[in-house]
Amino acid sequence: MSETVPLHSIDVVIVNYRTAALALSCLDSLAAEAGEGMRIRAVVIDNASPDGSADVIENAIRERDWNWVHLVRSPVNGGFGAGNNLGIDLVLQQERPADLVWLLNPDTRVMPGAARELARFMAWNRAAGLVGTALLEADGSPWPFAFRFPSIQSEIERGLRWRFSSRLLAGYAVARRMGEQPERADWVSGASLAIRPALLREGLRFDEGYFLYFEEIDLCLAARSYGWECWYLPQARVLHIAGQSTGVTDAQAVHRRVPAYWFESRRRYFRKNHGLVYAIAADLGWMAAHAAFRTKQALRRDPSVDPPHLLGDFLRHSLAAPRR
């Protein structure tokens, strides 16, 4: 093999919004992955951060002589999917296309060897169109989950939070605790998601109608319709400090009101992929189950564990609610 032609090559897309320091830490971890037999290139899309993030990243790229990193300033914040689509379109135009396109959140840090594990797995498993890595919590503890597609049954299980019903509906629960071997899944976290370029060239993109949340579920469902498989790869590990741009999924999220775009994305997912009647049934299933859970809490005088106004906000954004 020629020394100028790497064994594996990966194009990385990072969408940044107000998290410049974390994005640079992610790039640092990627720099360590490049080496013999591995070529890494990265595109950072800054989604119109109002805090000067783009300037910070641009200066760091220049100071560190990172000629493998390209910064793009998006004129608008179109959301997670729109930012990634912009990056995907750019990397597919590269003169020397990569073997793999890897989408990483800026609040991730790649653990040693993760890039090589991803490249090897995709080279071996030709049916895999998308692969998610194992994620680690901010303290380094494992977060070994992949997911099932949401359904009416999963909404009831999620809303009720009752041990008996959770056991009864275990096969429908969205979160799946994964083992130590690669395994197929319905969908995987968009925080660290590798995609085969052939699938992207077939036209797979994020639906930009989602501003944030549910877009990776929709993407994985679309990939299945293209005939590709989605896999979880525990041998590739990535540290993830969740929710740094939004505050929705970080450790303090229970104390914050869920933003309107979360409900809008959920509503869009169910209606787009299952139709209006199914989407309304999913809404009613969650609300009835959650009302039962809240009643049980009140009878026990347990403290609330929900974000503020959760049930009211859900009803207001539900397809079952009357529209003006």
Automatic annotation (TrEMBL):
Chain ranges of the Glycosyltransferase 2-like domain: 12-135
Transmembrane segments: none
CDD domains in the record: GT_2_like_c (cd04186)
Pfam families: Glycos_transf_2
Organism superkingdom: Bacteria
Descriptive protein name: Glycosyltransferase 2-like domain-containing protein
Species for this entry: Novosphingobium lindaniclasticum LE124
